[in-house]
Each structure stands twice: as structure tokens, then as C-alpha cells.
Amino acid sequence: MKRLVVILALAVLLGSGAYIVSYGIARCTFCRMPDADDSSSWLRQEFHLSDAQYAQVKKLEADYHPHCIVMCDQLKQSHLALKNLIMANGAMTPEVETALQKDSAVQQEWREDMLRHFYEVSQAMPPAEGKRYLQIMQAQVVERMPNAMATPH
To answer: How far apart are CA 72 and CA 150, in angstroms?
Structure first.
């Protein structure tokens, strides 16, 4: 019976200790998960933003979001129109050429707007972090073709 009490006491102590350690780890800033309701919260953690910098980045993100949706819709429509013309024609036609030019113009505008936004966000960050942000985000503009179904960040 004495042995059972000792085992139970040890189990309670170990369980309590595990809880305290895991609670401390969960509260650690480094380990904290981004807020699911705040899509830009990862920026705060990743780029070590102060409250003021984060507030400015959130404002820039909120201001850009409606325009981003419009641009993504335009890009989707342009891609769909081009795809439909390509599939409807058995050869290069003036209509396909016009659709290609329009699609290129929409993509160019989308890329310029996104790059302008990335520059604005980077300028709201400490200089070294802003430069690192641009290094990461430039891939959205330079290294991959835009995917109209995905958001830029």
C-alpha cells in the first residue's frame, strides 16, 4: 500500500511538472502560434516588429486587400478569356493575339501593384528586416508566374 501511494505521488508530481514546463513553452514568444484571425500576424513574429510598426503594416495590408481582390479577379478573368480563345481556335488569330496582349498588360499591372505594396510594407519595418522582407517577397513578382487563385501573401 505504501508503494502505491509513493507511485501515485510521483505520477502527480511528474504530471504537474510536465504541465508547468509545457505551459511555459507555450507562452514563449518564439513558440506562439500566429493569430488565426489575423493573417498578417506572421509578419510581426518573423520580422520582429514593434507595436507601432505592426500597426502600420496591418493598415497597409488592410488598405491593399480590396485592391488585391480586384486585381486577382481581373487576372482570373483575363486568364480564362485567353484560355477559352486558345481552346476555341485551331491557330493563332488576331483575337488570340489581342487576348495575349491584354493578359500581359493585366499581369504587368498586377506585378507593379504588388511590388509597390511590398516596398511600402518593407519601409514600415526596421531597415534590415525590410530588406529581408523584400528578399522573400520579390519571388512573388520575379521568380514565379502569378497564380490568380492564390493570394500574394
So the answer is: 8
Phi and psi at residue 77, in whole multiples of 5°?
A: -65, -40
Q: Please report, to the nearest 10 degrees, the dihedral formed by the alpha carbons of residues 9, 13, 15, 18 taken in order.
A: -160
Task: Cell numbers for 70, please give them.
Answer: 480586384
Those residues of the chain that have pLDDT short of 70 are 6, 8-38, 144-153
The pLDDT tens digits for 6-32 are: 676 666 666 655 555 444 444 333 334
- For the entire predicted model, the pTM comes to 0.66
Residue 23 is predicted with a pLDDT of 45
- Whether the Cβ atoms of residue 106 and residue 76 lie closer than 8 Å to each other: no
- Cβ neighbours for 111, distance < 8 A, ≥ 6 positions apart: 141, 146
pLDDT of residue 4: 75
Cα distance between residue 39 and residue 45, in whole Å: 12
Give yes or no for a contact between 78 and 106, defined as CB atoms under 8 angstroms apart.
yes
Count Cβ atoms within 10 A of the Cβ of residue 26 and give its class: 0-12 exposed, 13-18 middle, 19 or more buried.
exposed
